Structure formats: structure tokens, C-alpha cells
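Take a specimen:
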Amino acid sequence: MGDASASMSRTTDVVSKERNQGKNQLRVGRLVKAHGLKGALKLELYTDNPEGRFTPGAEFTLQVPEASPWHGKTVVVREYRVMNGNPVVFLNDVDDREGAESLVRAILWIDQDADEAEENAWFDHQLVGLDVVRDDVVVGKVARVEHFPAQDLLIVKSGDQEIMVPFVQAIVPTVDVTAGRVVVTPPAGLFEELPDASETPDAGESSDSDASE
């Protein structure tokens, strides 16, 4: 499953048509920290193919707060490097640390054709409705996908409960859209049912019963 890690998104997010004039876009990274004094930024990658995505001249739509001076703007890659094991990007018109710091926490989106599939990435609509299988037993269905900067969550409907399952390889090792299922290997307690309080004898009732005997 490539180099997927706990911090990497495994879904192909599609932004609204209002935001990108009807084009599909993929979330491919987040700018997490200024690096050095020349405008470089460390990246948190949401793609299995950073060398292909962060080529010189690649243009990204920015997801930033409305109050940000970068709101509504795009950025263009000048250079992508791996420095001391960390992915780092240099952007046009970002030439110093102050400029880089103004972009920290920005999420990067790129145009993508709807039929272009990235390995180990799925559109939300492909995941919703899939059976969730643990130890060969169906324990629920994917109700929706929630997206967060650090990772995505599968919201699994199991009975009357909704369970948040981190969408990372260690916990969701298999996604089989054709078969209509995802396989989960959750940590202990994630899907176990809590004891029903109604089934626990009330202490007062036990005392009364003991007294009557």
C-alpha cells in the first residue's frame, strides 16, 4: 500500500464546484512549518506520488482562513526537495521566513481529472455504504468520511452507534470497493459493546430482594 502512514490521507477529496469552477481537485499536502530563512516550507504529504505532484510549475489552490492574506490565491512550486528525511517545498514569490510563516497550516489542492485515480486513494462516495468487516464478521457500514489535517476518519454506523475509525493502513489495511467492503483491524475496545446498564441489577433492588428472603 505504498508508503501510506498515519499522517497521510488515504481519500481523494473533491472540493465544491463553487470553489474551483466545477473541476475535481485533490488534497495533496499541508504546509506545516517554515524551514530555514529562504522561504522553504516543510510538507505533510497526502499523496503517494510527491515527486509527480510537486514538480516545478505545479499550481495549487490554497485552503486557508478567510482572514489570511492568501485567501483566494494560488501558489506555484519552484522546487521540491527531501531534506534530512523531510519533504520541503519552495514556492514562487515566497522568498523569506516571514512569507513562509504566513502559509503555515495551509492545505494544498490540485486540479485532477475525475477519471484519474491515485494509488490507495478513493473518493468519499466510493467508501460510503461499504461493509466494515472485522475477523470475517460485518460489524457495520461506512456512513461518511470526516477529513482532518492529521488524518481522515471513517464514521462507521454499527447498530445505533457511530464509531470513528482512523483511516490509516494499520487499522484499515484493505479497501475493496468491488467487493463492497473494508477490512478493519482496530485496537481492542473500538467496536466492543459496553455493558447495558439496564441489564445490571440495581443495588437497591438486590438489597430489597435479600431482605425479603
